[in-house]
Design brief:
Mean pLDDT: 95
Order of helices and strands: HHEHHEEHHHHHEEHHHHEEEHHEEEEEH
Number of helices: 16
Strand content: 15-25%
Distance between the termini: 38 Å
Strand order of the largest sheet: 8-11-12-13
Helix content: 40-55%
Radius of gyration: 21 Å
Number of strands: 13
Shape: globular
Low-confidence stretches: none
Length: 347
């Protein structure tokens, strides 16, 4: 477990994450504060919204994605799917996509999809969505198979990723239980020209809003950008933030006497596990239980620390505590479990 001296840092970060203090009014406000919520696990992104709002339902996320178009999911930070505000998509994509395109092509080649086939695949995806509008992954697979483009294994995912990195597609509306893909120009409209220097400053400002206190290496790791870019962004907004003696940046004026959040259930791949280079503040000595083989399990927080993992094997939350829990903490987590069920049931 992290030493007691780290508690003020932990409390400040968890407040920045909307896990203490006033809750968010809706899913768009969660995305505004956190900037980008990892969404490779669809349930995880939706549970991240629940933990940071009050009285929300999963239907509010679906509505923002499908009807309002105020939220969108695409491959962004670290080349991973993230939930973001639609208005933040253009500049986040402009910053993060260039570093990922070569890697996606390299991965496709390793999967037996050469450059010519990959380009044919991207063209097929664009033509299909132009003609038919939003389509699910399996619908696009059929179109790609008909065009003779390999889709076996992970090839289909990487073809969709490549089309995303080229700025052609995003995940648009929900079609039943499936999240369909749509053309950026159709779903979000014409995209603005992005000033890279200004975008780096906005990245740093918004990252710190949801993660401070944090450092330049935290920002570089979280965004997937080069350290020099993270430092350039932080330098551009230096007058708005205080740099601590440990090198971390925090808002000016600083908030003091912050409280740790009440017990919380957080979903898989929650932002508190992915916001900084080190997650030891949260998981302590339980890293191998919480994370393994690239998977981040749902966790229970008590006084800001992970005390259990949890699952819903039969539609009910089942806790796996690391140690015996106090009765008051167990009762609080049971109330959280009921709220998780309420949130997910309201589709």
């Amino acid at each position: 477990m992290s030493p007691p001296g780290d508690t003020p840092l932990l409390a400040a970060r968890l407040r920045a994450q909307l896990l203490s203090g006033p809750p968010a009014a809706g899913p768009v406000e969660v995305a505004e504060r956190l900037l980008a919520v990892q969404a490779q696990d669809p349930l995880g992104a939706r549970l991240a919204v629940r933990a940071r709002g009050a009285g929300l339902t999963v239907a509010s996320v679906e509505h923002a994605l499908t009807q309002e178009r105020t939220l969108v999911i695409s491959w962004l930070c670290r080349g991973t799917l993230h939930l973001v505000r639609s208005e933040d998509y253009p500049w986040l994509h402009a910053l993060t996509a260039p570093r990922r395109r070569t890697g996606v092509l390299r991965r496709l080649t390793a999967l037996g999809v050469g450059a010519a086939a990959a380009q044919r695949g991207v063209n097929t995806i664009e033509r299909s969505l132009t003609a038919a509008g939003p389509m699910t992954r399996e619908q696009l697979r059929l179109r790609l198979d008909s065009a003779g483009v390999p889709t076996q294994g992970q090839a289909l995912v990487h073809l969709l990723n490549l089309a995303s990195q080229r700025g052609l597609i995003v995940r648009g509306p929900m079609i039943g239980a499936d999240h369909a893909y749509a053309l950026v120009r159709d779903w979000l409209g014409p995209q603005p020209t992005v000033d890279r220097e200004g975008a780096l400053g906005e990245l740093a400002r918004r990252y710190l809003a949801g993660h401070a206190p944090a450092g330049d290496r935290d920002l570089a790791w979280w965004s997937g950008l080069a350290l020099r870019d993270a430092r350039a962004g932080l330098s551009a907004i230096a007058s708005d933030f205080h740099r601590r003696s440990d090198g971390l940046f925090e808002p000016t004026p600083r908030q003091r006497s912050l409280r740790l959040p009440p017990p919380r259930l957080l979903g898989p791949f929650d932002p508190v596990l992915l916001g900084w280079r080190s997650r030891r503040l949260i998981v302590g000595d339980h890293a191998s239980v919480v994370t393994s083989n690239g998977l981040f399990r749902p966790i229970a927080l008590v006084r800001g620390r992970a005390v259990a993992t949890w699952a819903m094997p039969s539609g009910r939350v089942t806790l796996a505590p690391f140690d015996e829990l106090a009765k008051s903490d167990s009762a609080a987590l049971e109330a959280e479990a009921r709220d998780v069920a309420r949130y997910l049931a309201a589709r």
